[in-house]
Design a protein that fits this description.
The complex is a heterodimer of chains A (521) and B (716). Chain A has 521 residues and is mostly helical. Chain A is built from 19 helices and four strands. In chain A, the strands form two sheets. Chain A has a two-stranded antiparallel ribbon with strand order 1-2. Chain A has a two-stranded antiparallel sheet with strand order 3-4. Chain A is globular and about 75 Å long. Chain B has 716 residues and is mostly helical. In chain B, strand 1 and strand 2 form a beta hairpin. The radius of gyration of chain B is 38 Å and the shape is elongated. Classes of the chains: A mainly alpha (521), B mainly alpha (716). At the A-B interface, helix 6, helix 11, helix 13, helix 15 and helix 16 of A face strand 1, helix 5, helix 6 and helix 26 of B.
Chain lengths: 521, 716
Amino acid sequence: MDIGILNVVTYLPLLGAAFILFFLSDPRKIRYFATMVAAVDFGVSLFLWWYFDPTVGGDRIFQFRWTRDWIPSLGVKYDFGIDGIALLLILLTTFMGVIAIWSSFSAIDYRQKEYYVLLLLLQTGMIGTFCALDFFLFYVFWEVMLVPMYFIIGIWGGPRKLYAAIKFFLYTLAGSVLMLLSILALYFFNDGGIPFLHINGLGNGYSFSMLQYHNIGHLIPVSLQRWIFAGFFFGFAIKVPMFPFHTWLPDAHTEAPTAGSIILAAVLLKMGTYGFVRVALPILPQATLDWLPFIVGLSIVGIIYGALVTLVQKDMKKLIAYSSVSHLGFVMLGMFALNPMGIKGSVIQMINHGISTGALFLLVGIIYERRHSRMIADYGGLAKQMPMYATLFLIAALSSMGLPALNGFIGEFTILLGAANRNIWWAVFAAIGIVLGAAYLLWLYQRVFWGPLDNPANKNIRDLNRRELGLLVALVAVMVWIGIYPKPIFDLLDKPVEYVVQKVDPGYFNNLPAMHVAESK
Amino acid sequence: MASVLLLIALLPAIGALCNGVRAFARPLQPKNRAITNFFALASTGLSAVLAAWMLIAYREPWEHSYFTWIPAGIGHVIGKSLSNFTIDFALRIDPLSLTMLMIVTWIGFLIHVYATGYMAHETGYTRFFAYLNLFMFMMLLLVLGANYVVMFVGWEGVGLCSYLLIGFYYEKNFAADAGKKAFIVNRIGDFGFILGIFLIFNAFGSGDYSKVFAMASAHPLHYSGTATAICLLLFVGACGKSAQAPLYVWLPDAMAGPTPVSALIHAATMVTAGVYMVVRSNVLFRLSPVAMLVVAMVGLVTAVFAATIGLAQNDIKKVLAYSTVSQLGYMFLGAGVGAFTAAIFHVMTHAFFKACLFLGAGSVIHGCGGEQDMRKMGGLRKYMPHTRWTMLVACLAIAGMPLFAGFYSKDEILSGSFAFSWKIWIVGAFGAGLTAFYMFRLYFMTFSGEYRGAKVVGIETSEPEHGGHDLIPDQKHLDQGDAHLDKGHGHHADVHVPHESPLVMTGVLMVLAVLSIIGGWIGWPAALGGGFPTPFQRWLEPVLLPLGEHQFHFHEARRWEELLLMALSVGVALVGIFIATRFYKRDAQWTTATRLATRFAPIYGLITNKYYVDEFYNATVVRGTIVFSRALSWFDANIIDGLVNLTRHVTVFVFGHGSSLIDTFIVDGAVNGLAFTAGAASRLFRRMQTGFVQNYALVMGGGIVLIAAIYLFLKP
């Protein structure tokens, strides 16, 4: 029987969670079992990569398809399939899943069973979202993700955990409700039309198939496209989060436990950007062009504004949370350059941000476990006391600020190359964010690690233990690999990005881009 | 050959990795210095030998792509069709990269050797060499890269190593500050550089030197429009890396790093990367007269401006730092007036004599127990004869005395600027006079007269070896209060007798001194009986591609004119040396100099305080950014997030409580109303329920009668 490898990778964490729920009670066993499940899932996703054929283009780029009827009367199908973009994000999810679960061993000391069950459940929700090719299924997984994260923040979080958890939940839920409206608008348009708006439908019957909408998207009247785009925009932009919808993020990150922050930064934020590239761009090409100046503007404001606000944060975790606003601004800017460089860079930067910012949250979590403080002012001179920790922190920071030969550079450079090819001024403003990125990270680094070790409370901090070292070395290895030899990733992105560009800007590869390439000044 | 070239670059990286892992794995334990030395010296030494072999085996330019690094995708090229924007990891060998390769590997190797002596007592010894080797690797990428993006990797990489090495004594706040400042100021420059790269991609569809320059060379008119923007942006990057106005401010602070670092990174190699980049891009720069003029002017202004600051510094390394800024200005002046070979020539000779000067200064500091203030030196010629002789040679070289290396390169630059404009020549020659003055001021303050540091005879024998260098004295220096303590010996006594440095250090000085003399002869000018063009010019000629039909022409001056200019510039330099002799050698109490300083106190104050440029930047750019950021942070927490919370309050209080009211009074009111109605009706009907059987029977009987009557009545 063909059970579908995507089903395996998606539901394995769920099965693991169920097993823990019913059969395990010793926290030690639970921890190890959960890590094992996540590791096996990562192994399965590597297997996916091995068998994925990156050379297939056109409508067949979605591979490992597994389609069944689900609710035939509503046209709902159970439809799984991934392209290179989804594959990369699944790899990121399963990898960071291992890191997040393994990092929680000493951090979580109560209600451990529930914690690991929820983390595994969250994995299923995230992977399912990346696999789903049916809007109905997509929406189900989208909402499934929300619940475990809500509990993880709300139960194992910091002092203001309830406020942060509720804010996170309601804010993103508000966005996803608008997204649902847009899905329904597409759905009715595809069938009989939307009577009270006097819009005639296509009469194709009931369907939630994303791939079908990829093909009929350009038939939707522009006026309707704009409204549908608006719904998707709020759903995705809140999740990204784009300026000015970002304020749930610092609270959620600051209050979440370390693993929660890692997953939140590494994967959950990517749901928004993934939504744009999978849904909004290919289905609504004209609306994308209409909305483009607005979104690019918000992205650039987000890059600079986020970086400036980051500069003056006093809480390390909050600082890194705000830096995400700036980084995700880059991701959005690259995507809306609507050319292969920009979109490839954008997807790669999604991965990079997951790795680098995940590593930084992990690092802050490690120091928090030892000193129970996240305030920068409480530290100073740690390089003397914790040389290994200091070295790895520096590498993570350099990766985050886009130093060449580390991963961040590949993403930022490719994004800016794409943006500059569309309009050099976009690159000019966005590049300010690179300068500020160095400023806030190096200033942070100096205040925490350099200078005299003058706080007596820091004089007995232990350096990394083996588990922490292993986690960080794994992350650093990925940073170096992507920085030096990113070609395998670019290969995966080649066809899917071409597919997206073809949909959103059909004239691009015929040298007739919908927007003219800006002449340089 | 391609694999040898890769090996040349990779060897230092391997050395860095080995020492880096050793330093990382056991950070707190002392490590075997012999093993550290082996990794550090074998890697750089072998790299240097292979580089020499590369030079010997060189026939014609070639490049090799090792792998595809960033296959970015299909983009649009201005005025043309589509192009595949792909960036390869590719290295290139041509006369320019070979020249830089030789400078970097050999000077780098010499400084590594020197550092094994200088840093011998540091606890961070292995970490230091790991950084230094990593720097070599990055610098080699910078000069060997075959496209702008690989150059950019090296460019940022050397910036990182510079940051790490300036901040080597990271526990000291001034070192930490200086490191961060260097990195961020460089990033501002890189902002321009990377935008320049994007414009190159937009215009040429590629970042490979071979493609870009071939296209620009073949169709100069087509690209002359974009060339100005590209070159100006690239030059912003060069200003950052090569410490030109207005981005020079990081270099003097960078002296917080150990002295071998100052010699290698902040004098001989990294800071010349900007000059290399401009010369590398000479085809583009020549397309844009505006950009050339900007390069020349920025170079000239920086050369003279930094020289004036150098006149009044008392910290030996600070003098050399400003001297470096000034000399780099001359290099840009050369490039800007079209004397590209002269610029690279000066890069080379400057690498020799400035490395010699910095290492000599390091030897002096080493010998004086970590003292950097020249006012506390003096008379060292007795104690440190080898250091003294080598320093003297280097001073003569930088002052531009004939037969010494600096003469030939500086003369070529000045001659080129005269051809451009005599006004530039005058300013440039004036700067050369200033250079001669402050260098001999340094020399006399250090080596002439009597030793001014406190000294107690006999303490020397009680000092076994130098103490741990990592114990940096905490006292601040006299001038300006900005501490700049590079190193100290950790002597327990406040007193110290200067002593000569070990052979491993003085030996390197001697090699560099010899190079500071003969290194210039390769560019022997035609006016003095050499050929035209000079051998060095002929060597670099393949890099200077023609523009369309026009071949590149070296400037050939009339002989008498050339000789006159030489005589004048040497004369100016001699005047500078003469004044320095009068002020600081003949006059042991420096009375004339002190009197002048008092009489022109405002000017003197301005110079010693470096024109308050740092203060100005701090007050405007740094403070401005932070204050603005604080305001934004407040805005974020109170306005944007305030709106979110307001939504919550509106929802909870207005809609929530509002609904609650509606719920209570209308929805629930309706329910309650229904209940009330039912109750009222019940109360009405209750009265019928009397409980007496006869009443019920009566009602029942009445009912039967009633129903019967209705039935009969309605029956048809």
